[in-house]
Write a structure and sequence with these properties.
Number of domains of chain B: 2
CATH topology of the largest domain in chain A: MetI-like fold
Order of helices and strands of chain A: HHHHHHHHHHHH
Number of helices of chain A: 12
Radius of gyration of chain A: 24 Å
Largest sheet of chain A: none
CATH superfamily of the largest domain in chain A: MetI-like
Radius of gyration of chain B: 27 Å
Distance between the termini of chain B: 46 Å
CATH superfamily of the largest domain in chain B: MetI-like
Distance between the termini of chain A: 48 Å
CATH topology of the largest domain in chain B: MetI-like fold
Number of domains of chain A: 2
CATH architecture of the largest domain in chain A: Orthogonal Bundle
Structural class of chain A: mainly alpha
Helix content of chain B: over 70%
Number of strands of chain A: 0
Helix content of chain A: over 70%
CATH class of the largest domain in chain B: Mainly Alpha
Strand content of chain B: under 5%
Order of helices and strands of chain B: HHHHHHHHHHHHH
Oligomer: heterodimer
Number of strands of chain B: 0
Largest interface: A-B, 94 and 93 residues
Strand content of chain A: under 5%
Shape of chain A: globular
Structural class of chain B: mainly alpha
Number of helices of chain B: 13
CATH class of the largest domain in chain A: Mainly Alpha
Chain lengths: ~280, ~300
């Protein structure tokens, strides 16, 4: 009995590994090919037969990207916008989540429902009127315009996730601080925020990713080259008369690094926070 | 304390009233920033776009005329609108179904007890990879992979499946399939992560009880795993339908809706009406139709969430 069970487990493990390796090729090969191509000469990209490491192996494509002030500006813009959106989203969402988690107030439920349904509003629906609103506010082709716009898409999720997080913290914590004479803002900043760091990290990472990746509004609400972000920069590379595939791949790798690194560092928080936030309201 | 005791009762009462009043106002203070943002950047724009959709030649001419529902009539009698709607439907349904199947398969593999947590963590990170790339990057990557001389055609030719390199993204018969495939690749990890969390939340004793009753692995999957995951599956499917039907960037950057409308979808159709032909009134009507479709899905999502709580 024992032996058959062991034999069965060995076979099962074999099949699980086969499945896992098949999945790895499906998920990982395109990414691997992107990396490999970024080190090729452009003439070697479609070499027949394909090669992983070519004779022309070099980091030239990266040097071209990193020595071009226009492309460095794309990166600067993306970092500036994404970091600002992250900081502002965390502040605004923390305040709102505190109210939703700790107070029962008239209109609170309806407001929560509005915030929840905002997530389902198609970006394309907002695009046409936004153009008018952003131009009207004098924010066309500015960082502020992009930052405000992105917050509409990051806030709902951030508020839902942080409210869920605050709800898991016992109310006795606040009560104790209140008895010591702390006001609501102090309770929030001194008690709740410090113990919510894991939740904040997960919300912050997710917010950064949304802002870093956004394409449609970056395309429409900016006009000049010095205001463009990385996703638009990659599209601009595609629009050039000759395709420099190796440079596009190098820029793609560089453009993915921040998110890859964030994920690597905060993986555990992110996966936990992600699932609790998306599925609970 | 003594000071308070010495004060007339009226003063104490006013103070208590004022304190209660401030306390009642506190939560509104906390939600003011988000409410203001949502008003300016969500509620007002939606009102504007609904207004635009009833006007003729809006934005392009200073004096636009109220035309009632005429823009909607024009959209709903435009053949391209139905092509876009059909493509959106095909794209969304296939994407969501395969996201679910792949997500569940990978989550089940990653939930195995036969491998060490460390090995599983490595595979999990690898499987999440596609989700970490932005759409613009995914588009340019797959344009390279699916190039007639690209690596995928190389594999297909050398294994004898096709004779010559296929123009996956620029041939009418394959473009929709190709963008759907790219979207499947890009989107399954979110499903996988949620389902994995769901799998890990299923109590072990349910499986033990099933084993005692003599259930096979397949029966356990059908009668224990799937019913336990059902609420997550339904939530994820509705959310994914909302997101996939709104996908713009991936299509715009791979095929632009072409060749000859083969991959035209509601968002690209709307975008072109606005920013290629400058028919902002018509585009607004299309945008409102897209909004209504999403709101129907959102309604089911919220109702499902409420039922779960």
């Amino acid at each position: 009995m024992k032996r058959t069970k062991k034999a069965y487990e060995r076979i099962a493990r074999g099949w699980v590994l086969v499945g896992l390796f098949a999945g790895t090729i499906f998920a990982g090969f395109p990414v691997f090919w992107m990396l490999s191509s970024s080190f090729k000469k452009n003439s070697e990209i479609f070499a027949y037969p394909p090669q992983i490491l070519t004779e022309g192996f070099s980091i030239d494509a990266y040097l071209v990207i990193l020595s071009d002030p226009v492309k460095l500006r794309f990166f600067f813009n993306s970092y500036l916008v994404a970091l600002s959106v992250t900081a502002l989203t965390l502040i605004v969402a923390t305040l709102a989540a505190y109210a939703f988690s700790r107070y029962n107030f008239a209109g609170g439920k309806s407001l929560n429902l509005v915030i929840l349904s905002v997530q389902a509003v198609p970006p394309i629906t907002l695009l046409i009127p936004f153009f008018g609103v952003i131009v009207g506010l004098g924010l066309y082709n500015t960082y502020q315009g992009l930052i405000l716009t992105y917050m509409v898409f990051t806030l709902p999720y951030a508020i839902i996730m942080l409210t869920a997080y605050f709800n898991t913290l016992p109310k006795e914590l606040d009560e104790a601080a209140k008895i010591d004479g702390a006001g609501p803002l102090k309770v929030l900043t001194r008690i709740l925020v410090p113990i919510s760091i894991p939740g904040m990290v997960s919300v912050g990472t997710y917010t950064f990713m949304i802002a870093w990746n956004e394409y449609l509004f970056a395309l429409t609400l900016t006009r000049t080259e010095e205001m463009r972000t990385v996703p638009i920069g990659i599209q601009l590379l595609m629009g050039q008369h000759s395709y420099e595939w190796n440079e596009m791949m190098a820029m793609s790798i560089l453009g993915s690094l921040p998110v890859l690194l964030l994920f690597l560092f905060f993986q555990r928080y992110l996966i936990g926070g992600l699932t609790s936030g998306s599925l609970k309201t | 304390m003594t000071q308070v005791a010495n004060q007339p009762a009226r003063v104490i009462e006013t103070r208590a009233k004022r304190a209660r009043f401030t306390q009642a106002l506190t939560p509104y203070g906390f939600v003011t920033p988000v409410t203001a943002l949502i008003m300016v950047l969500m509620v007002i724009p939606i009102a504007i776009v609904i207004g635009y959709s009833t006007l003729d030649n809006v934005i392009m001419t200073p004096e636009s005329e109220f035309v009632g529902l005429q823009n909607y009539v024009k959209i709903l009698s435009d053949g391209t609108f139905y092509i876009a709607a059909r493509n959106s439907l095909v794209f969304t349904v296939f994407s969501v179904l395969v996201h679910f199947v792949l997500g569940l398969a990978f989550a089940t593999l990653l939930n195995t007890r036969l491998l060490s947590p460390f090995v599983k963590a490595i595979f999990r990170s690898l499987f999440i990879l596609p989700w970490l790339f932005t759409v613009a990057i995914i588009a340019v990557l797959w344009r390279m992979l699916l190039n007639p001389n690209g690596i995928i055609n190389y594999f297909l030719i050398s294994s004898g499946i096709v004779d010559v390199g296929v123009e996956w993204l620029s041939s009418r018969s394959t473009a929709l399939l190709a963008v759907t495939f790219i979207n499947i690749w890009a989107g399954y990890p979110f499903f996988m992560v949620s389902l994995l969390a769901g799998l890990q939340g299923i109590p072990r004793d349910l499986y033990e009880a099933a084993t005692v009753d003599g259930a096979t692995a397949l029966q356990q999957f059908w009668y224990v795993t799937l019913p336990q995951l059902k609420p997550i599956i339904i939530s994820m499917m509705i959310l994914d339908m909302i997101w996939t039907s709104q996908q713009f960037a991936l299509i715009w950057l791979t095929t632009g809706g072409g060749p000859i409308n083969a991959t035209e979808m509601l968002p690209t159709y709307t975008y072109k009406l606005a920013f290629s032909t400058y028919e902002f009134g018509l585009a607004s009507a299309a945008a409102v139709i897209v909004l209504l479709l999403s709101m129907v899905l959102a309604f089911f999502y919220v109702r499902h969430q409420k039922a779960r709580d």
